[in-house]
Each structure stands twice: as C-alpha cells, then as structure tokens.
Design goal:
Layout: E1 3-7, E2 21-27, E3 68-72, H1 91-109, H2 112-115, H3 132-136, E4 171-173, E5 189-191, E6 208-217, E7 222-228, E8 234-241, H4 249-261, E9 271-276, E10 280-285, E11 291-292, H5 293-300, H6 305-324, E12 327-328, E13 337-341, E14 344-350, E15 357-358, H7 369-372, H8 389-396, H9 405-420, H10 443-455, H11 462-465, H12 470-479, H13 490-495, H14 497-500, H15 510-516, H16 521-548, H17 551-558, E16 560-561, E17 571-572, E18 575-576, H18 585-594, H19 612-623, E19 635-641, H20 654-659, E20 663-667, E21 673-686, H21 688-693, E22 703-710
Helix pairs in contact: 5-15, 6-9, 8-10, 9-12, 18-19
This protein binds adenosine-5'-triphosphate.
The site of adenosine-5'-triphosphate has 23 residues, from strand 6 and strand 8.
Length: 711
C-alpha cells in the first residue's frame, strides 16, 4: 500500500462549537497584541466618558488610529477564545483575552497535546479557538510610538465620534485596563454584552481616500495609492476583499505581525496602518514609487553591475534582519523587491510578507503548530522559479525541512537575473506551444524546471557573463548552492568581497534581455505570479470549504477527496486540482511520514502540488488512531475535535478532518483499491472533562466522537 484515499460524504456533522467573528474597524499597528505589555503610566484618555470602545493613538511615523473591536458572532454569543479582544474598551473583555492567551500559551508550551491521555490513549487537544490572539501576542509596544490623540471620544478630524451610540446600560465598570492598553489610566467602561453593530464607522475611509493609481495586484488583493485625508501624503494600500475566496484573517494578521517585527528596517516596506471593515482588510504601507525591480530596470533601459550590487546588498540586509529574528520571507522574487525612487533603482525594499514564517524556539513550539497554527519553514511556499532545491525536494516528497537559506537561494536567482536578464533555471518541455513561458501551466515544463533546480546545474553563458566581474559570479555561485549547508547565509553575503566595495560600472544587457528573450525573467515573473495566484485560490477555496462546511455540505459539495496511489492527481468534488510533479510523491511522503522521516509539507507553491488541506489530510491520517491499527484492528475509537477554526483557513485541526471522513481507502501503486476502512461515527458528546479543563469556556466545546472502524 502506498497511498490513501479519503472519502467525505454521508456522515452526520459534528458540531465544533460556535463560530466567532471579530470585527475590527481599525487597528493600530502598535496596538496589536500590546495589551499585556503596556505600562500603566502611559497617559491617555481617548475613550470618551461614555465608555466608548474606541481609542486614539498615533505614532510619529504615520497616522495612527483607533483600534476597536466589536464582537459579534453568528450565534449571538461571543467568545474570548474566538477572537481578538484587543481594543474594545478593556475590562472584562481584556481579562478574557488575557485568560485566553494564557491558556493558549500553556497549550503551546504543553507538549502533552498530541501525546494524549495515557490511560485511554485518546488524543487530548489543548489548542482551541483561533490563532489570531496568538498572532497578536507577538507584538511588542514601544512607548515612544504611542501618542495620544486628544479629545473625549472624538477623532481629531472630527469625523468619527466614538461611542456615539453607546448605552450606559450596556456598560459596566471593570478593572483598570491601563496596564493593558496604552490608552489612559483609570477605569474603562466596557460593553457588558458585546453587541452587533456596524463597526466600520471609523474605517479606512475616515482617514484615507483612494486614488485611481493602481500599483499592483497579487493573489490576495490589489495595491492602490491612497492619500491621507489629513496630510495629503500618499501611501500604498493593499485591499483584500473579505468576500473573495482568498480572504483569510489569520494570514492577514500574520502578515501584519511580521511587518511589525520588521518595523524600522530601511529595506523592508513599512506597514503604517491597517483596518478591517465588513468587506475588506486594508494594509496601509509606505508607497514605493519606483515600482517592482525588474519593471524599474526595464523602464529605465539601463542597468549596471554596481547597481546590481547595491540592490543585492539591500536585499541581503533585509534578509539578515529577518533571519536574525527567526523569520524567513519565503517568497523572495523580483516582484517583491520594490524600488523606493522612480529615478534610482536603489534603495530597494522587500514587500509581501504574507508568506513569511517566524519560527518559534524549539521549547515554545507546539506539536500541532505545523498543522494548527502557524506555518513552518517546512511548508514549501513561494514561486516556482525561485524555489531552492530543498524546497523542491520537500515539494516532491524527497527531503526534510528547509530553512531560511531558501531566501538566499532566491536572492541568488534574482542576482543572476539582474546580471543577465534571464533566469538560471528554466523549465522546458517538448511542446513549444505549451504556453509555459507565457505564464500558462505546463506539467512537463514544471517537472523539467524542478529537475533542473534539484540538479542545481546552471551556466554563465559567455555572451552575457563575459563582461561581468568574477566577484559577482562568485557570489552567484555561493548562493546557488544546491546544499543549503554550503550556501551563503545573509551574513556571508554581506561580507562577500563583491558587496564590500563598489563594483564596476559595466552596463549590463539585462534590460534588453528582459525584453527580448522568450524565456526571460519577465515571463518567469508572470508565470510565477500565475502559479502563486492559482495555488492560493485553490488553497483558500479548499480551506474555506473545510472551515465552513457542515457534514451535509460536505456530502453535497466536497464529494470525494482522492489521492491516487501513483501520485498522479487528486480531486475534490469532481474538481481536478492538479497533478503531482512526480509520480509516487505523495505515497513517498506518506510512507516517510509513517516512519517519522518526513512531515508532509503544507504546499502552496503551485497548482501542481497537493493543496495544503490535502497534505494536512495525509498528516491527519498518519496521526489518527486508524493508521496505527492493522487490518484486524476493527473497533471503536474516540476522536476528539477542538473547536472549529471559523475564518482562519490556515488552521486545520486533524480530528476535524478525520471525523469528516467516513471511509478511508488504501490504494496500491497502480491505483487499485487495496482496502477500504469504514468509519461510522456513532454519537457525539461534549466531553465535560475537556471543557472543564478550559476553565468553563462554553463557546468552544470539545467534542468527542466514538467511531466504529471496520477494516
Ligand atoms: N508599498 C508598496 N508600494 C508600491 N507598490 C506596492 C507596494 N506593495 C505592493 N506593491 C505592488 O503590489 C504588488 C502586489 O503586492 P503584494 O505582493 O503585497 O500582494 P499579494 O496579494 O500579497 O501578492 P502575492 O500574490 O505576491 O502574495 C507588488 O508586487 C507591488 O508591485
């Protein structure tokens, strides 16, 4: 047996607790997650005496705004574990938040999660609720960044009146939150019961107006110029449509969090503000007026080795900064390198931190973190052309984790392209009309590309490289090392002799090659964009289904999820999601996973890779009681489900998926069904003990399903 097939339909739904939505009309970046770290003495009094749930603050860097969070949920209930009780006025909600975060920290620190209740052998999930608080919890507050707007409940522009519809009866005096929020001492009045209301009244449009200058778009949203209403200053705003399939609060929060960590670095685009309303997220950033790197080079039509050196130094400096903080960017590519000035290629800054991953120290890592909360560096993400060999390895099931050096590989690819005008590794199939170079998907080209990356073979053709200094070529070769151990890290790059002093002012052929070569990096750029887009859409669509579906939905919508034994394709609900780049890859991944050698990656890089849900699924199967059972191990097993992860499409709790599978089919290498495991959920109960262990939190009950497994 080499592969698993999981079927979803025709089982009763297991209710995973109430879902919680948090509506944050505005969140100040410095405000996020600072709630536990802010000193009492910060002088502020922005909240009106009426007890409004809004606060003002700003920093010297940019307009800062009120952060308000108003809870509502579909079931008229709110849950501290379900959301972000950051700025809603304090008191009870903040206390809930603290309790929740404390629980969450404990859950992360407690290794017992997956190891289970020893007496029963049952998995005992300790992580419940959403990951957003955890994300917020990463923030640190700089006191000097916090400056109060004055006024009693009114925004200084006078447009937004905080607490205008507050009702005294709805509030109660609570503990001081001055220790929690940088918003003034004294007692806050907080909503006794969070109410549904439109929280967009102090939204993005109260502070900015959009212009019609479109700056770019990605898989998640479009980036447009906006202007501060107050100062007229221009910024870039990434608008992510919440209605779209790509919406994920968790991802946005993670990106915001990484931005925050990278605050102040001159070569990383700075996030200045962010908002959420009923329809969109708004990430307000400094505007990079010089545009994406290759576009800039193309438009100028002129590029020198010295300029390439400066750009390289800027990127390396950004990477060093991130890597030193345990963050890998994971999507370093020319479109994510933006030029500050329209007239000069450097300085450049890295943008698009939404794939960045911050690795926790080992002792803080939770066993489920890879599947349930934050992505790990073992999750291959990024654009195909810029993937390091070890990423490709992980992608096709051949290798273990990769680390931050995937970024320095990508920098090597960018450097190569900057110097030559084409990419070092290119995929090519026999069909010249396959459309790959125009950005269309081509399985064979992609396979070829992956093979080339894995082989690590590239050349310095004399025509373009003859004029380039040996030092520059040497740095390229130090970066395009197949083995990450041999590859330069950011420190080594910065210390390399090519970066230590001015390079030659040799005029490079890069602009003309970018324009004229059929397989140019320009095409590569389009192609990688396409793949990224496709894959993220696929991810989001799948994940959204998992998040929102009921079992009856699953029966009608999901149909069958299929892993074919030869790794040739998988599908859900009759939709083809792509082919694996290599035969047997999934089978290999699962086999290695069984033996503990390999964790199936969460893959987001290409439509030709299993969507993460599916790979998580395989992980789930590996972790499930069933996998540890041999064919004659029919019996009843108890599975526990943590609460649903409504809205956060990166959270996938194995038992949920597992419970949703009434049958598992085991495939042979030729895709024939070897065996079929029937799983029949017998009944669902709330597990009181588990509930109690979560301090009586009622909104996210743990469910237990006793499942009959017949093999
Ligand atoms: N601060 C900025 N200033 C100017 N242009 C920007 C800025 N941020 C992003 N852009 C432009 O918008 C494009 C898309 O932005 P970004 O990569 O952040 O979006 P995304 O949806 O996360 O994209 P991806 O699909 O690559 O993840 C960028 O490639 C760039 O051209």
């Amino acid at each position: 047996m080499s592969i698993l097939h999981a079927g979803y339909p025709q089982s009763p739904i297991v209710h995973f607790g109430r879902h919680h939505n948090v509506n944050i009309s505005q969140l100040d970046l410095n405000h996020l997650g600072q709630v536990e770290n802010v000193p009492r003495q910060v002088n502020n009094s922005a909240v009106g005496s009426g007890g409004a749930a809004f606060h003002h603050l700003h920093t010297s860097a940019a307009p800062r705004h009120v952060a308000s969070s108003e809870f509502y949920d579909d079931d008229e209930a709110t849950s501290p574990s379900g959301g972000i009780e950051i700025c809603a006025g304090g008191g009870k909600m903040m206390a809930n938040l603290r309790r929740h975060r404390q629980r969450e920290r404990e859950a992360y620190e407690d290794d017992s999660f997956s190891s289970s209740d020893e007496s029963s052998g049952r998995p005992m999930p300790r992580y419940v609720g959403r990951d957003t608080d955890h994300v917020f919890g990463e923030f640190e507050m700089d006191d000097e960044d916090v400056e109060m707007r004055s006024g009693s409940g009114r925004r200084d522009e006078g447009k937004c009146i905080y607490g205008e519809d507050t009702d005294e009866d709805d509030y109660e005096e609570e503990e001081s939150v001055s220790e929690l929020l940088p918003l003034g001492g004294g007692t806050r009045r907080v909503p006794r019961t969070p109410r549904r209301k439109n929280s967009s009244k102090c939204g993005f449009f109260d502070y900015y107006k959009l212009t019609d200058e479109h700056l770019g778009s990605g898989a998640y949203g479009s980036v447009t110029t906006c202007k501060s209403i107050k100062s007229g200053q221009e910024f870039a705003v990434k608008i992510v449509d919440k209605q779209g399939e790509t919406h994920s609060r968790k991802r946005i929060l993670r990106e915001v969090n990484i931005f925050k960590t990278c605050k102040g670095h001159p070569n990383i685009v700075q996030l200045l503000d962010w908002f959420e309303d009923d329809t969109n997220f708004y990430l307000v950033m400094e505007k990079m007026r010089g545009g994406p790197l290759l576009q800039h080079i193309l438009q100028r039509g002129y590029f020198t080795e010295e300029e390439a050196r400066r750009v390289t130094k800027d990127i390396a400096s950004a990477l060093k900064f991130m890597h030193d903080r345990g963050i890998a960017h994971r999507d370093v590519k020319p479109e994510n390198v933006l030029c500050t000035d329209p007239n000069h290629v450097s300085p450049v800054k890295l943008c698009d931190l939404d794939l960045a991953s911050q690795r926790r120290p080992q002792h803080e890592r939770h066993p489920l973190s890879q599947v349930a909360s934050e992505p790990d560096l073992a999750s291959p993400v990024g654009s195909a052309e810029f993937m390091a060999p070890e990423v490709v390895d992980a992608y096709v099931g051949d290798a273990l984790k990769y680390d931050k050096k995937c970024d320095t590989w990508s920098l090597g690819v960018i450097l190569y392209i900057m110097l030559a005008g084409y990419a070092p590794f290119q995929g090519q199939c026999d069909d010249s009309d396959c459309g790959w170079s125009e950005g269309k998907p081509c399985e064979d080209c992609q396979q070829d590309l992956f093979h080339r990356i894995q082989d690590g073979y590239y050349e310095f053709p004399e025509e373009e490289w003859g004029m380039i200094s040996d030092e520059a070529k040497d740095l390229v070769s130090k970066l395009l090392k197949r083995d990450p151990i041999d590859r330069f890290n950011a420190d080594q790059i910065l210390a390399h002799r090519w970066l230590q002093q001015s390079a030659a002012s040799t005029i490079l052929q890069t602009p003309s090659n970018l324009i004229y070569r059929k397989d140019s990096a320009r095409d590569v750029q389009q192609m990688s964009e396409h793949f990224n887009m496709m894959n993220r859409l696929t991810d989001a669509r799948l994940s959204a289904r998992f998040d929102k579906m009921t079992m009856s939905d699953a029966a009608s919508d999901l149909g069958t999820a299929t892993f074919h034994g030869d790794g040739s394709f998988l599908s859900m609900g009759g939709e083809l999601f792509g082919t694996f780049p290599r035969k047997k890859s999934v089978g290999i991944a699962i086999e290695k996973s069984r033996s503990g050698e390999f964790t199936p990656p969460i893959s987001r890089a290409s439509p030709t890779t299993p969507p993460p849900s599916m790979l998580d699924l395989s992980q789930d199967l590996m972790d499930s009681p069933v996998k540890r059972r041999s064919a004659d191990d029919s019996g009843t097993y108890s599975l526990f489900s943590p609460a649903s992860s409504n809205g956060d499409d990166d959270i996938r709790s194995p038992p949920i998926l597992f419970l949703d599978m009434p049958s598992i089919q085991l495939f042979g290498a030729d895709s024939t069904v070897l065996n079929s495991v029937q799983m029949t959920p017998r009944h669902t109960t709330e597990d009181e003990a588990s509930l109690n262990s979560f301090e009586g939190e009622q909104e996210n009950p743990i469910h237990r399903v006793e499942t009959q497994v017949n093999v």
